[in-house]
Design a protein that fits this description.
243 residues, alpha+beta, Beta-lactamase, seven-stranded mixed beta sheet, four-stranded antiparallel beta sheet, 9 helices, 11 strands
Length: 243
């Protein structure tokens, strides 16, 4: 079985910030505790560079399988190659593992590996299991890397067609109202009770990037990751059109 080594060269989003604009917020940890999870949350205000984080060491250093959040990559490759029709992309669910297993196999292993290498996605040894390498522990990624990746996707800085990246942004738009827009990817593993929520909120022309990575003791807590995200964002003053 062939395996591929993936380089880890992402620059850490945290260290792009100065000490003066980094806030370690213990109140967020309390919200996570009350939800029965441990992990980290980070939020970066694009305009000011203000960075808010809870669970700092976990955010920087704890690498986990990306789970279905990895599907960002095959989505963009498939959009570039026409495997996903640009006009039908809005109907594609980012949560459909069977759909993306099929897409990944259509794209092919060599292209997937080349893309992982070209954007320096995560670290580790990627297994040859084309149906599960994103969740079998061979490929891992930190919350910091995830935050950097979604920021690059928002600004269309990844090595894909600009149109494909713009369509991808529409694919992950979940809420759009007069107060805010909320876009995100979710991922969950019922075996390990690990979850990811990665995305951004747009409010009054300002962009706020976020990443939430948690582990819980119960499946119920795992299934409530979006509710937890919204609770944290509300506590931080978002989702009200006031930021």
């Amino acid at each position: 079985m062939k395996k591929y080594l993936v380089a880890f060269v992402f620059s850490l989003a945290l260290f792009a910030c100065t000490p003066n604009n980094v806030t370690i917020d213990s109140s967020i940890v309390k919200i996570m505790d009350s939800a029965g999870v441990v992990g980290s949350f980070a939020l970066l205000e694009n305009g000011s560079g203000k960075f808010t984080v809870a669970g700092l060491s976990h955010y920087k250093d704890s690498a986990s399988s990306p789970l279905s959040s990895f599907f960002m990559l095959p989505s963009l490759i498939a959009l570039d190659k026409g495997i996903i029709n640009h006009n039908q992309a809005s109907w594609v669910s980012m949560d459909s593992t069977p759909y993306y297993q099929n897409i990944i196999n259509q794209i092919g292993r060599q292209t997937i590996i080349k893309t992982i290498d070209s954007i320096h996605y995560g670290k580790g040894i990627v297994s040859a299991n084309m149906d599960a390498f994103w969740k079998d522990g061979s490929l891992t990624i930190t919350a910091d890397e995830q935050l950097g990746l979604i920021k690059r996707a928002f600004f269309k800085e990844l090595p894909f067609q600009k149109r494909s990246q713009e369509i991808f942004k529409k694919m992950i738009l979940k809420e759009d109202n007069s107060n805010y827009k909320l876009s995100y990817l979710t991922a969950a593993d019922s075996t390990t009770n690990n979850t990811w929520v990665i995305g951004y909120e747009e409010e009054n022309t300002h962009i706020y990037f976020f990443v939430l990575h948690t582990t819980s003791k119960t499946a119920a807590a795992t299934n409530n990751s979006v509710a937890l995200l919204k609770k944290i964002l509300l506590q931080q003053g978002f989702l009200q059109g006031l930021r």
